[in-house]
């Protein structure tokens, strides 16, 4: 459509009827009046006639059906169509401009202003967000026939037999094609009566300033692909930085993305806080308050499961979610950290022939669960930690006959012959040098380690692929490919699908690792 409009615009400018650009006035009120008159008299009825024709017989199946393929409309849907449809839309937009120029009343402001208003009204109609309140239509009843609403257009996309107008429902009224529920439904939507409550919420946070632009409502092209630093985003860093400051001052949790799975709505909400802020002591209470408010909001709405992402479940911050469950014992929403499935993913990546592993981050929540699970399999675990007290505490949790398989080490060189490293603490290139050639680094550390050793292999962060019947997944979760989510996200999904009634907070229950893993596979989730 852009190419078509460029060519038509070039043809118009080169024609003798069109005045030289240097001769155009900036403002000409008569031109606006002529354009408005022609829009009402030509564009509106002409577009409605063409639009209705596109809904008949072969014109719909061969052309217009592609436009209606989007089950949920969005602003980009307004420009999605075949060249024939683009031509109809272009003519509807250009007719008022051509008439104004032929009348000698064209101006620069008319060209830019008319196209901007035209595109805005198209995008507004497809946005699924009510811009004009139902109270305005109630106060001015005639207005409902002069400007359409997103609900009005949404009914057209669902029913396909009504509401054909461009912007003015007046012409549908004259043609007898106004959907009878247009105004009643708009009022319900505007009042929030038909809002759908999500069954599952993944509560994330912003990683850093640049990646904050990796969201569908900022750059859809970027968010539809795994996150990577792109040069086009760097000039926008000052704007993103200002937004970060603004969020700290006055923002609250907001919805970033959603998808549907087996009839249930799953949403990702984001705490308006950035990773580095979680390590600033004065901000700790404020972050916990944001998380608490999000949990209470989900509980009030009727959300079934809320899964805490990344640093939102940090042990030092809130005990892996224990703080909120203890403070609000009557929560109906189930709060989960999802780390049981994270541990399961990591453990199932380890080949069955392995008899010895080296574990860093050994006394963390995940490290503890991994060590206790592996020792039960009679796998020797070299646990890197300087704290004998924490090591002994974990060792005593293991059954007596398996405690011998847990060994404390304090130096990296203790693992110089071990080819399976489980990395839960960031490794510098110097520390990686101690690994022998052929080592595989299994990772559960954020951010991932630098892949320094060319004679070794590196695993990705623990993740799971969502079931094949997932719908409406239009964006990627950070560095994951589309359809793949972090294991803690997948853990919350499994919790929701299984209908489990317990909270999954605090320490990982080692006995449930296999239970959660089998449940994930049973529901169609799979390792990526």
Arithmetic mean pLDDT: 93
Record field, number of beta strands: 13
Q: What's the main sheet like? A: 6 strands, parallel
Structural class: alpha/beta
What is the end-to-end distance?
38 Å
Low-confidence stretches: none
Helix content: 40-55%
- Strand order across the largest sheet: 8-7-6-9-10-11
Q: Count up the helices.
A: 20
Rounded to the nearest angstrom, the radius of gyration is 29 Å
Oligomer: single chain
β-sheet strand percentage: 5-15%
General form: elongated
Structure description:
The chain has helices spanning 2-14, 29-54, 57-62, 83-102, 108-126, 134-139, 150-159, 170-175, 182-190, 220-223, 237-250, 284-301, 315-318, 322-327, 339-349, 365-376, 388-397, 429-432, 487-498, 513-522, and strands at 200-206, 254-261, 264-274, 305-308, 334-336, 356-360, 380-384, 406-409, 420-423, 440-443, 457-461, 463-465, 484-486. It has 528 residues and is α/β, with parallel strands linked by helices. It has a six-stranded parallel beta sheet with strand order 8-7-6-9-10-11, covered by helices on one side. A five-stranded mixed beta sheet has the order 2-3-1-4-5. It starts with a helix and ends in a 6-residue tail after the last helix. It comes from Hordeum vulgare subsp. vulgare (Domesticated barley). Homodimer. Residues 37-177 form the Fatty acid hydroxylase domain. It is found in: Endoplasmic reticulum membrane.
